[in-house]
Write a structure and sequence with these properties.
- The protein is 68% helix and 0% strand.
- With 128 residues, the chain is mainly α.
- The longest helix has 49 residues.
- It is elongated, with a radius of gyration of 40 Å.
- The relative contact order is 0.03.
C-alpha cells in the first residue's frame, strides 16, 4: 500500500513539474514575441522616419551644406571630421613633361602621322 501511495505521489509531482515547465516556456515565448513585436514597430518607425522628406532634408543640410536662403544651418561635428575638410595638405606639384616653345612650333607644323610618331615613340621629325 505504501508503494502505491509513493508511486501515485511521484506521478502527481512529475506531472505538476512538467506542467510548470510547459507554462514557464509558454510565458517565455510570449515575452519574446512581445519584445520582437515592439522591435518591429520601432524599426518600422525608424524606416518611416528615414524615408521621410524631413530626414533627407536634414541629411542634405548636415553633410552637404545645402540650406534654404532664409536659413542659418549650424551643426556640430568632430574635430577629426572638421580637420579633414579644412586643413591644407601639402601636395607636391606633379612633374609634367614640359614642351618648349620651339618644340611646340615644330609639332604644330607636322601632319597627323608624324605627330603620332612623335608622341608615342618620341621620334623627332626631320627638321627639313
Amino acid at each position: 500500500m505504501i508503494v502505491i501511495i509513493i508511486y501515485i505521489s511521484y506521478q502527481i509531482i512529475s506531472f505538476t513539474y512538467k506542467e510548470y515547465q510547459i507554462n514557464s516556456n509558454i510565458e517565455y515565448i510570449k515575452k519574446l514575441t512581445t519584445d520582437v513585436e515592439e522591435k518591429i514597430e520601432s524599426a518600422k518607425k525608424i524606416i518611416e522616419y528615414k524615408t521621410s522628406k524631413a530626414y533627407k532634408n536634414k541629411i542634405l543640410k548636415e553633410q552637404q551644406s545645402f540650406k534654404n536662403i532664409w536659413e542659418d544651418v549650424i551643426y556640430f561635428t568632430t574635430e577629426e571630421n572638421f580637420n579633414k575638410y579644412t586643413t591644407v595638405k601639402e601636395e607636391k606639384p606633379k612633374e609634367t613633361a614640359a614642351i618648349t616653345t620651339t618644340e611646340k612650333e615644330r609639332i604644330k607644323d607636322l601632319n597627323i602621322y608624324e605627330k603620332w610618331l612623335y608622341f608615342l615613340f618620341r621620334i623627332h621629325p626631320d627638321p627639313n
